[in-house]
Amino acid sequence: MSILVTTFFGSGMSPKAPGTMGSLAATVVAYPMAVFASDILGETLFRFFFFAAAIIVFFGAIPFVNKAMKDTGTEDPGWIVIDEVCGIFMTFAFINPGLISSMGIVFTAPLLLIGFGLFRFFDILKPLGIHRFERFPGAWGVMADDLLGGIYAGLLMYPISYIYSFVWILLAIAPGSQN
């Protein structure tokens, strides 16, 4: 069970870029979650749903990550990618929920990829003090830096998602567009 959780169902076992693969798997899972949150829970609870999912993953993963680190004698092996899942979910807590329910995957996919890219930027480079969170003991350090990276990516996603929807609306009503 610990391996399934920490590798996010095996996505972290990729021989190349396991963190990127874990983030990509989390992004793929985030889309149906977003549709559910938007259509069933409504726009009001959308952000709370993703925020809660990120926090649940954060605290729920701590014992699994600690066990994996203890069993392998390593501090942060690359195949542990549940931290990326936490960060991706936090990133998507900030997007415009109206985009998900009304436009579908074709419209939403570029936005999901932007969120994925922003999160990976913060996860890999660890600017703005993110690297300090890695110093937390044990699994707390593994998880905390990605949660903060997700918050930073989300803070950028908030205006980007609204600008993105505005541009699409302008394109839809532009002269010569097909209605």
Put the structure in a nutshell.
The chain is mainly α and 179 residues long. It is built from seven helices and no strands.
How much strand content do the residues show? Answer: under 5%
Total of helices: 7
Q: What kind of sheet is the major sheet?
A: none
N-to-C order of helices and strands: HHHHHHH
Helices and strands: which structural class? Answer: mainly alpha
* Overall average pLDDT: 92
Approximate helicity band: over 70%
Overall 3D geometry? elongated
> Over the alpha carbons, how many angstroms does the gyration radius reach?
17 Å
The count of strands amounts to: 0
Task: Explain what you see.
The chain is an all-alpha fold and 179 residues long. The chain contains seven helices and no strands. The chain has helices spanning 2-6, 18-41, 43-72, 82-92, 98-125, 130-133, 139-173. Helix 2 (18-41) runs antiparallel to helix 3 (43-72) and helix 3 packs antiparallel against helix 4 (82-92). It is elongated, with a radius of gyration of 17 Å. The N and C termini lie far apart (50 Å). The model has no long low-confidence stretch (mean pLDDT 92).
